[in-house]
Specification:
Length: 206
């Protein structure tokens, strides 16, 4: 672990429900990080393809068409989008923690996930949100405790949780007991829910 290094949080909007365009945006921020001598870059929750606020705004029964599109715009870990991002991490020497809507390869099952990629492009691991919050359950499946892991990197021992997982004492303790040194607490990039400003207008905290 480096004794001193520069980390940064991405405060930005994705190209909503467009995984190809948002992948390019992810890579642009990796390039910017390199120029700014940033070694660790943390993105918001489900930056690809964006957080689906519509699920909290409209009746569930009218949502199937847009839910189907959201699933199509979710990324597979072994798919081309993540491969391009890994290559960018390697080319620019930046370690990232990236929030995505992950689609299990060959299925329509999705997870709210954080992807950990080392500065040499190595995929360190994936954490799947243990319990989707509230109506998120119409999109994302429950994650598994086996993804509640920390990952040694050039920057230190990395861990992370998504959104309300950060309030789960047991989940935080599990990471602490693994020697976590850097925690990426990922939240959606922007809250549009009136009445929740005090608790939901939170950016990435690392």
């Amino acid at each position: 672990m480096s004794s001193v290094f520069k980390a940064a949080a991405v405060h930005a909007a994705p190209v909503f429900m467009n995984k190809v365009a948002t992948t390019e945006r992810v890579i642009e921020y990796i390039k910017d990080a390199k120029k700014a001598s940033v070694e660790l870059l943390v993105y918001p929750e489900t930056f690809i393809p964006g957080y689906p606020y519509f699920i909290e705004c409209y009746p569930t029964l009218i949502q199937p068409p847009v839910l189907a599109e959201y699933i199509e715009q979710s990324v597979e870990i072994d798919g081309p989008e993540i491969s391009k991002i890994q290559a960018a991490c390697r080319d620019y020497g930046v370690c990232i923690i990236l929030g995505v809507s992950e689609r299990m390869s060959g299925t329509h099952t999705c997870f709210n996930s954080q992807i950990f990629i080392e500065s040499d492009g190595t995929l360190l691991g994936v954490h799947r949100k243990l319990q989707p919050t509230y109506v998120e359950r119409i999109i994302w499946a429950n994650g598994g405790g086996y993804t509640l892991r920390c990952y040694p990197s050039k920057c230190g021992i990395l861990g992370g949780l998504a959104c309300w997982e950060n309030t789960m004492n047991g989940a935080r303790q599990a990471l602490i007991q693994q020697g976590e040194q850097i925690h990426a607490g990922a939240w959606p990039a922007l809250s549009t829910m009136a009445g929740f400003e005090a608790v939901a207008d939170i950016q990435v905290v690392s």
